[in-house]
Amino acid sequence: MEDRADYIRESIDFLHRFLVKSIQKHAEEHGLTVPQLRVIAQVLVNKQITIKHLTQNLRMTQSTVSDIVERLSAKGILLKTPNPKDKRSVIISVSEEVLNLIKDHSNEPVKRAVRDVLSLLTPEEQGTVEQGMRLLMKAVTEKMEKDGMGQMESFDEPFH
Amino acid sequence: MEDRADYIRESIDFLHRFLVKSIQKHAEEHGLTVPQLRVIAQVLVNKQITIKHLTQNLRMTQSTVSDIVERLSAKGILLKTPNPKDKRSVIISVSEEVLNLIKDHSNEPVKRAVRDVLSLLTPEEQGTVEQGMRLLMKAVTEKMEKDGMGQMESFDEPFH
DNA sequence: GTACGATAAATCGCACCCGATATATCTTAT
DNA sequence: ATAAGATATATCGGGTGCGATTTATCGTAC
Q: Of A26, A114, B84, B120, which cross-links A109 as Cys (Cβ 3.0–4.6 Å)?
């Protein structure tokens, strides 16, 4: 049990770093950082989006998003226009010029990386991976409910 | 495949955040941050350690470690003494006073969290989780070799 | 209409994270 | 012994991430 818990803990850490590395290479090709690329991707997907929704979708605090958007705006990558419906709010969009340069989504390299990884396994093995992951996720969710850790409830359950 | 890759990617992200949260609560009880607690734990385990080894063990850059150690030193938690064997180096240790206050290791709360999670599953389910994790790790390692991503080779393979 | 509560985003201060640089020191080659 | 290469750590500058605070604005209750 002890060794198994250690293994799982370290694996999660390792896998996470692997995913971050996958997206980092892509970001650097565009002279951006990973968080910047994630923000841009969200703006691309939504065409127009507010700081608030970026905050929710990206699971960052509003202050972090504000800073990142500000720097991307200064770089001419993102546009900030006042929201006519609410003067407290701003609309974030991608400038037309940049739109043609960045046709990719932030998750694409990560998706490709995970897909490549899975393609190295047999369908049966893939099933085991997925099953194990579901069991672990279920157990974690259960523990969180027991502990009253409701702060991560914003996780979008896949396959909803 | 597409949905499965998405699920696995998001699960890894979620699980990672869960682990971080687990240690965060513990850190806050001591008025510390997670990175600080990790550094302190390494110093506790090794009694005396250099910045260089902290850097390697914690998988941070030397500049990050230097900053953290500096702040912990300013708080009186860590001690920095010149290394008599090498004037470029410093020995990091825990002050005697703090030694009595912090008898815990940084990984304990995380270990406990993962153990608690696993205890919610049957032994058979635990086996599936571990098996899936091993398959995934094997596939990721394989892909990294194909891509020449040797930079993460510092991962200590468990059960060696 | 007015007051109050809630909200959106900018900003601040702190800590962390990184790569690059600088300085002093050690190791190796000649 | 000397010079060159390698190394340990502090520091710098830029970016990220957070919680707290501020200011303006919106929504609701009366």
A: A26
Q: Is residue A18 part of a domain?
A: yes
CA-to-C1' distance for A99 and C26, Å? 53
Residues 135-154 of A with CB under 8 A from B: 135-137, 139-140, 142-144, 149, 151-152
Q: Please indicate, yes or no, if residue B119 is contained in any of the structural domains.
A: no
pLDDT in tens, A60-80: 999 999 999 999 999 999 999
Spatial separation of the C-alpha atoms in residues A92 and A65, rounded to whole Å: 11
Are the beta carbons of B137 and A15 separated by less than 8 Å? yes
Amino acid at B101: L
Residue B75 lies in a domain: yes
Q: Does ipTM top 0.90?
A: no
User: Per residue in B48-61, pLDDT tens?
Assistant: 999 999 999 999 99
Is the Cβ–Cβ distance between A51 and A61 less than 8 Å? no
